[in-house]
Structure formats: C-alpha cells, structure tokens
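INFO batch 0412 | record 1 of 1 | parsing
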Amino acid sequence: MKNFSSWLIAMFAFMFWGFRLAGTVMSSLGNEFMFEPTNLTMEVALLFITFLCICFIIKRRLWASLIYLIGHFLYYGPTFFEHIMGLINGTLDMNSYMVTFFELIGLALPLAALFDVLLDKNRKAHPTDKKTDWFYKNAEFDREIDERADKNNYRTM
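INFO prediction complete | emitting tokens
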C-alpha cells in the first residue's frame, strides 16, 4: 500500500467497522444507538468477516475485496433499496434517513476498496519496493574484485 488513497480507504473501513461494532454491542445490550442492525446474528458474522477482509485488503488481496463487497451488498443492499424507494415515495421517517446514510457508506467503502485493489498497478507487476531495487538488483554495476584488490577490512579511527 503505497498510495495515500489506499491508506484512507483502509482507515475509513476500520473506523466504520468499529462504529458498527459499537452499534451492535449497544443493540445487543438493549440500548439505543444511532442505528439498529437489521439482523443481529448476521451483523456479528459480517463483523468478523469484515475484519479479516480489511486485513487482507491491506495486503492487496483481490479475493478479500471481493468477499468484502459481496458480503456488504448482500447485507446492506436490500434494505438500502427499500429505503431509497421510501425516500422516492416520501414515506421515510427521520430515523430511516440516518440508517440510509450508514447503508450508503457500507456500500461505498467496499466498492472503493475493490476499485483501489483492481487499479493498483504495483500489485502484480512490481511486488518488491522500487526504493530498494537499485541496491539489491544492480549486479551489473557491482565492482569486480581481482587478485590485486585489498581484502582487508581496515578501520579508520
């Protein structure tokens, strides 16, 4: 992860994961939070899957970003569509606006992570760091030592 945008997506994904974790814990304790999960058991499973996927997205794994996208679209997609249709019809209450906003974030972050991994040119082409390639991969510029070369390691004091 060499791009600033990659780090921002990972940080926002972890912050959103922590926010959802707090909301799930508060909902399971019976307290009110900014949102209430639609399915508590599915939310807990998705939290574990999301944490693992974000860790592998940082390692630039394409399969992790696909699992992250599919899981979030299966969980947030149907309710987001219902809330958008309610918004168009004008039957949405004030609490549903906040839930729709969080669902939009839950759908936008995996899309951004997938596009970030897909559009990363260095993911497959250059798996090593260019900053150290000049030192480790320049054998043609190495000095050839012959029998007259001094092989002692003198210290200067």
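INFO post-check: Residues 62-89 form the longest helix (28 residues).
INFO record closed
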